[in-house]
Amino acid sequence: MLASPALRAAARRSAALADDALSAECEETFFVASGPGGQHRNKTESGVRLVHRPTGVAVSATERRSQLQNRLAALERLRERLAALGHEPRRRRATRPTRGSVERRIEAKKRTARKKADRRFD
What's the pTM value of the predicted model, to 2 decimals? Predict the structure, then answer.
């Protein structure tokens, strides 16, 4: 995913914030999380979805029966996603093969050609 420089900068800035400041930048919604966990998990809104408003990144956590534990897990997941979004890959520089590697490759091709030539019937 290619991100604009402004989006990348916003992600880096937000990833460095404390939990409460990062949570203040998010839209938090709670929902009923299905799955194993019994009646408590199936009847309460323990699932947490965080949408980071400045970047639009959305994460959710439904592993635990506790809304608080899911909120902490979602914040941690959001922090990881923001760090990944803020990472700028290093620019690749085009390189040329060294003279030695070119000579080795050509010599290997010549060896193969000689081997195949020796197999021919005349």
Answer: 0.70
CATH of the structural domain 5-86, one choice from 3.30.160.20, 3.40.50.150, 3.10.129.10, 3.40.50.2300: 3.30.160.20
CA distance 61 to 89: 28
CA distance 116 to 104: 19
pLDDT tens figures, 73-110: 999 999 999 999 999 889 999 999 999 999 999 999 99
Q: Are the C-beta atoms of residues 44 and 32 closer than 8 Å to each other? A: yes
Which residues does 51 contact at the CB level (< 8 Å), separation at least 6?
A: 26, 27, 29, 57, 58
